Amino acid sequence: MTEHQAAVEPVIAPAAPVRPEEYDAATRAALDHIDGQAVRAVADGRPERTRKGYAQDWASWTKFCNESGVPLLAVTPGTLVMFTEWLWTQPGWKKGTCTAPSTIDRRISGTVVSARAEHGVTLEEGVARLARGRLKQLVKEMEADGEMRGRGQAPPLLVDHLAAISAACPDNLMGIRDRALVLMHFAVAGREHELAFNRVRDYADAPGGLVADMRVSKIRPRVVPVPYGSRPSICPVRAWTAWRDAAQLTDPDGHAWRRLHSRHHTVMEGGLQPESIGDVITRAGERAGIEIRFTGHSPRRGLATSSRLKGHDQIVIAKQGGWAPHSKVLAGYLEVVDQWEDNALIGVL
Fold first, then answer.
1. What is the pTM of this model?
2. Alpha-carbon distances, residue 76 vs 38, 54, 121 (angstroms)
């Protein structure tokens, strides 16, 4: 028989794949285990501050459930409204105050995220919409009654403040560190946890200044170019170089912003915690005799405000500070500046 006459072997169709509803118990258990590991890996990869915040939110939800009799995993539109009203009556950050609306909004978000990610609860889309609607009603009632809650927005730390803070920093390791930290915090429009996670290698020399790698961020990691300042006394690049050299930060993997010994003020191996970053900002303002009480968020808002005053576009500012291009929070900061430039009374009176 010639090769043209050879019999062709029949083609065997592949077996149909097993459908999910047909999986046996062992397969379903293995897949559940894989899903659980995936959820845990993502959760563990979040910044410590984010994990801590979600844990606090879930702890509040747990306390609410214990007091109200709501089942722990019954995260529904109705129970979230009950949760919102319960939070409204809880004490706030300071004795004699009640929980701020921004805190309540965060508690709602944290509860929903934790229920989904940590406890595998399937929630309907927009499960928190009704609760946020109720929160808006409560806020309107609060404003109508003249009630004040929370600390309010952080005041912006502006260029004139930077000059006063820099001049007031003592000529020792603490002063050199504090000056560099405040100026860099402003230059990168940083969040406290972003600077706390920075290592020495995250500040790389460049021809026009340095490049700051804000690689650990709960919102938007970014690489920020920081040019030399026109005024040496408030130049973040020169200030960083002075701190790096004075503190002998030769290990590229070491913390960029170090703790100092409480008595001897020598440089320690450990880095500053996010809360300590904010404390440095507050103390620096007090040392300069500025009556405004700055917080860890003040340099970030200050960069946005100062940049807008110089006419920079929102997109440019957002890129520097890692805001979303059309962030409502950033737009609110800029509106404070724009209200004097884009005012309906200009040229009228």
1. 0.71
2. 25, 18, 11
Residue 102 CA to residue 332 CA, distance in Å, equals 15
User: Is there a contact between 284 and 276 (Cβ–Cβ < 8 Å)?
Assistant: no
Answer whether 283's CB lies under 8 Å from 178's CB.
yes
Written as six digits, the tokens of 175 are 């002063």
Which two tokens mark 193?
A: 């946890």
Cα gap 283→295, rounded to integer Å: 9
> How far, in Å, CA of 270 to CA of 161, rounded?
29
The count of C-alpha atoms lying within 13 angstroms of the C-alpha of 238, restricted to the half-sphere facing its C-beta, is 9
Q: Which amino acid is at 321?
A: G
Rg (CA), the chain: 27
Token pair for 163: 């000059």
At residue 81 the predicted structure's pLDDT band, cuts being 50, 70 and 90, is: very high
Question: If one looks up domain 159-341 in CATH, what number appears?
Answer: 1.10.443.10
Long-range CB pairs of 241-249 (<8 Å, 24+ gap) are: 242/176, 242/179, 242/180, 243/176, 243/177, 243/179, 243/180, 243/181, 244/200, 244/203, 246/173, 246/176, 247/173, 247/176, 247/177, 249/200
Q: Mean per-residue pLDDT for 103-115?
A: 95
